[in-house]
Q: What sequence folds into this?
């Protein structure tokens, strides 16, 4: 809750600072504000990356590990987040909300203004994009 309030405050602060640069271009004002929100969420997760728990994403389950393993895991988490950052905006947003905030599909859909099915598809396509960028072959293709 505290993080959400901080991000919301940051969004409105950034919007207020940038309002003079806003130019209607056939898109609603809400789309402009939404993009500021997406960027603020991405900034939030970029800043807390070293603390992010991506073990489930990269398949790490060990509770006791050496310094080398911890460094390797941190580097792998950084690679995963870099891959997520390179995704198209909607996929990146959906994955960030799912993996970073552990939100339910319905919650993500409400935030993004999309149906649960659309969110599920964005996450699926985003995960395919992340695997592709990391050079990971899905289990079904490993034979």
A:
């Amino acid at each position: 809750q505290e993080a959400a309030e901080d991000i919301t405050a940051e969004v409105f602060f950034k919007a207020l600072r940038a309002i003079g640069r806003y130019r209607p271009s056939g898109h609603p004002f809400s789309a402009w504000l939404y993009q500021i929100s997406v960027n603020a969420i991405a900034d939030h997760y970029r800043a807390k990356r070293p603390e992010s728990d991506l073990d489930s994403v990269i398949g790490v389950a060990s509770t006791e590990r050496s310094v080398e393993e911890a460094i390797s895991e941190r580097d792998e988490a950084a690679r995963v987040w870099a891959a997520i950052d390179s995704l198209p905006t909607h996929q990146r947003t959906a994955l960030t909300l799912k993996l970073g905030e552990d939100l339910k599909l319905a919650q993500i859909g409400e935030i993004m203004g999309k149906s649960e099915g659309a969110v599920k598809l964005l996450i699926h396509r985003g995960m395919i994009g992340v695997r592709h960028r990391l050079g990971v072959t899905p289990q079904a293709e490993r034979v």
